């Protein structure tokens, strides 16, 4: 529930308590039941509206390509990792993640499998895409099906430092996953500008996107990996 709705219901509860002396015990029970029901209904409506608005933004993002800068902070707000690279996505279900600093790595999701190429150890790890992103909110960036969206709750959030941006916080309904929350911020052109993830270790990873493109020619090999003969392939599908 967003802040405005929370304040609204806090006011309703306060009004109920201050007028309690005028009600019979049975009336108090009925009032409390009505309050709870109203609050639950409004929360659901608020979440549904947020989901519809986020879907409307993402459905127009059939393609996305941008440079990124990533910063990872621990629970004490210490920077533990920084990286730079390029992200390319197309809907549905395809993604290419390249880091150029501090190390060169490549991750490709082709719709069936996730391929992670690590030049440092000269190894490629292959995972089932369905298992790799199960219950991970980042899957909403490229997913179209209702069953996937039903796994998450969505609420609007505001960044006081960037009031012109529209923000959405995505939380898995099933707890225990690697990502606890995903926050997406869109700029005035409705482009994805910032992505923030809070993981199970309470580390916060923030990606800031620049040189954003949403329409561009796509090379045929964008979502494939050329594996050098000397590399070890660890296929875990």
TrEMBL record:
SUPFAM superfamilies: Prokaryotic lipoproteins and lipoprotein localization factors. It is found in: Periplasm. One of its GO terms (cellular component) is outer membrane-bounded periplasmic space. Keywords: Chaperone, Periplasm, Protein transport, Signal, Transport. The keyword Protein transport applies. GO terms for biological process: lipoprotein localization to outer membrane; lipoprotein transport. Residues 1-22 form the signal peptide. InterPro entries: LolA/LolB/LppX, OM_lipoprot_carrier_LolA-like, OM_lipoprot_carrier_LolA_Pbac. It comes from the Bacteria. HAMAP family: LolA. Belongs to the LolA family. Participates in the translocation of lipoproteins from the inner membrane to the outer membrane. Only forms a complex with a lipoprotein if the residue after the N-terminal Cys is not an aspartate (The Asp acts as a targeting signal to indicate that the lipoprotein should stay in the inner membrane). Monomer. This is Outer-membrane lipoprotein carrier protein. It comes from Alteromonas australica. The lineage of its organism: Bacteria, Pseudomonadati, Pseudomonadota, Gammaproteobacteria, Alteromonadales.
């Amino acid at each position: 529930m967003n802040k405005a709705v929370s304040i609204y219901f806090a006011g309703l509860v306060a009004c109920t308590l201050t007028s309690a002396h005028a009600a019979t015990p049975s009336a108090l029970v009925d009032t409390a039941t009505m309050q709870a029901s109203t609050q639950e209904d409004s929360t659901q409506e608020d979440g549904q509206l947020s989901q519809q608005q986020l879907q409307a933004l993402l459905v127009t993002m059939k393609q996305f390509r941008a440079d990124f800068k990533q910063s990872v902070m621990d629970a004490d707000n210490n920077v533990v990792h920084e990286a730079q690279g390029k992200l390319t996505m197309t809907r549905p279900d395809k993604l290419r993640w390249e880091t150029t600093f501090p190390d060169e790595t490549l991750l490709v999701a082709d719709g069936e499998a996730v391929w992670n190429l690590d030049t440092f150890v000269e190894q490629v790890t292959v995972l089932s895409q369905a298992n790799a992103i199960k219950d991970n909110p980042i899957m909403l960036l490229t997913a179209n099906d209702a069953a996937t969206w039903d796994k998450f709750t969505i609420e609007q959030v505001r960044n006081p430092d960037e009031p012109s941006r529209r923000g959405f916080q995505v939380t898995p309904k099933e707890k225990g996953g690697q990502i606890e929350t995903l926050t997406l911020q869109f700029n005035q052109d409705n482009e994805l500008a910032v992505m923030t993830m809070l993981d199970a270790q309470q580390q916060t990873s923030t990606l800031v996107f620049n040189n954003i493109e949403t329409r561009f020619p796509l090379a045929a090999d964008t979502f494939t990996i050329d594996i050098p003969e000397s590399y070890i392939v660890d296929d875990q599908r």
